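Q&A log
Question type: sequence-to-structure
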Amino acid sequence: MTYQEEFITFMVRSGVLTFGDFVTKSGRKTPYFINTGNYKTGAQAAKLGDYYAACIQNHLPDGVDCLFGPAYKGIPLAVSAAASLYRNYERDLPYCFNRKEVKDHGEGGSMVGYKPQDGDNVVIVEDVVTAGTAVRETIELFKHVAKVNMKALIVSVDRMERGTRDCSTLDELREDYGIAVYPIVTVREIISFLHNKEIDGKVYIDDAMKARMEAYLAEYGAR
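Response status: OK
Response body:
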C-alpha cells in the first residue's frame, strides 16, 4: 500500500473519516466528514506525524527552515510531523505555533517555539482547509513576525470544494498568496480507494455512498 492508501485506512480506523449525513461549517449538507478531533492517542499522533512527514519529504525534500502549526489543531500536527521527519528521515526541522491570546508577561509575543527569521522558508501544517480562514490569518500574522517566505501548506485531505470563487479553497490560496499546497490525499483518492473495499469486514463506500459523494462534488466541487 502507498502511504496515501495507508492514511485513508488509518483515518477510517481512527473514526476520523466518517460517512452519513453531516453539515459543514458553511452550511453544506455533506455525506462524509473528517473530524481530526477524534485523534486522541499517542499511537495515533505518532502515525499521523509519519503521514505528514511522508508528504513533506515527498514534495519538499529540502529548502524548509521551519514548520508552523496554527493554533489550536495545527499545533500537535506540526509537533508530530517534526518528530517523524527526524525519526524517519533524519531531518531536524524547528517548529513553532501561535498563541490565540498574546502573552503580556515573560517574553511576551504571539509565537511559541522557534522564532522565525527573515528569509526563512516556512511550511504551514494544517488538518482540513474549508474556507482557508486560519491559513489567511497565519499569513497575516507572519507579517508582524518576520519577512518569511510562505513556502507551502500541507493538509491531510483536499475536499476539492469551491471556496468563495469557482476554484477550490486550496487553489484560491495558491492564487492569492503564491503558496504551494500539498494534501496527503484528495477526496477523489478516498472514493477511488474505498469504493466497494472492505476494511475490517465493512464497506464504507458502497455504490450508493459513491453516488452521494459524486453528487456532492458535482454540486459543490471546484470547477
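Response note: The longest strand covers residues 149-158.
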